[in-house]
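Quick one:
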Amino acid sequence: MIDKILDVGHVRSTMGAFWFYVLSVVVLVGISTTLLHFLGMVGIVDGGSASFFAGSTLHTLVGSIFTLFVSGLILTHRKLTSDIFAVLLTVVAVYLAYTTDVMLGLIPVAILTTIKA
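Output:
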């Protein structure tokens, strides 16, 4: 069941897009927290980075890259790179993820999963 939710080539209904959003947020929190914890232990980043929901700039940067990566996977797997609406939705998602909140930036990505090729 989880493999179908994580499949970026699958066209989703509204409820499927909602569960894709929820699972993407959970995966993002896990990746971002684990990555920054280990980078802090090695000494690459400041060890006092706040939690994911506190809005640290490093968590925002990791979340923006995650949003760009997932959006790019959806665009390439569905061959939507020539669809201007899908590309603009990706740009909006990355902009929202970087400027406002990563959780808000993942909403256009969930909408992107409902677009048919």
